Amino acid sequence: PREGWRQRAGAVGDPGMDQQPSAPSGFPNLRVLSRRAARQGDLVVAEELLHQQVGGEALLEAFHALIQMCAEAGDLTKAEGFFAQMEERGCRPTVVTYNLLLNACAKVGCSERAEMWFTQMIGRGVTPTHVTMGTLCKNFARQGAVDKIEEVINSLNRTHCDVNEYFYASLIYACGTSDPPKPDRAERAFHAMVAKGLRAQSVKRVLRQVVGEERTAHLFDGLRWRTPQSHPGAKGKGKSA
Asked: So where are the chain's domains?
């Protein structure tokens, strides 16, 4: 039987874990140069600089820069290839590594690979963060996997982890990409996030794409009537909804 996300993921880690480790003082500038080359899209230069790295945190950061570049270019195969090279050179994958791979999967709409990497991450004892779960939901949204995103949200709620607007935006988006579309569930997700005090305005555009301009306007008008301090010019800011 398929395990639930709560059993597979366990407790979500501190969001601070998403920060890439900083190298101790004294590391060569190759780290900076390789990351700069990656940002500029110069894969050849970045790879050459990578081969000059000896090891440690600088090497890990260089690999992260290359994987991120591949993710932005939509080249999942190359990103996964750098992951394999990273392990061959003795670098231990971190939550940042897996987040980058999940993002690469989302870029090309390959949710099956995203689930594979997420499962490997959990199996290796790497604790997911909100960024991890949010990126996983982004993969599911492209697939139209409404139930899977709801399962993630419910799992986080059960463990008393904050679920922000990003998760609900993914859920509403998934309602539009599912076959057939599920506008009724998009509205249900919208009402759920409003009930949690989240910013309605943050999902207005994606809600409009799923339920239409007229229905979105009606839903936002309803928020104004429900909130005494709101006025006709309000735009769903803050937690007034």
From this structure: 30-123, 128-225
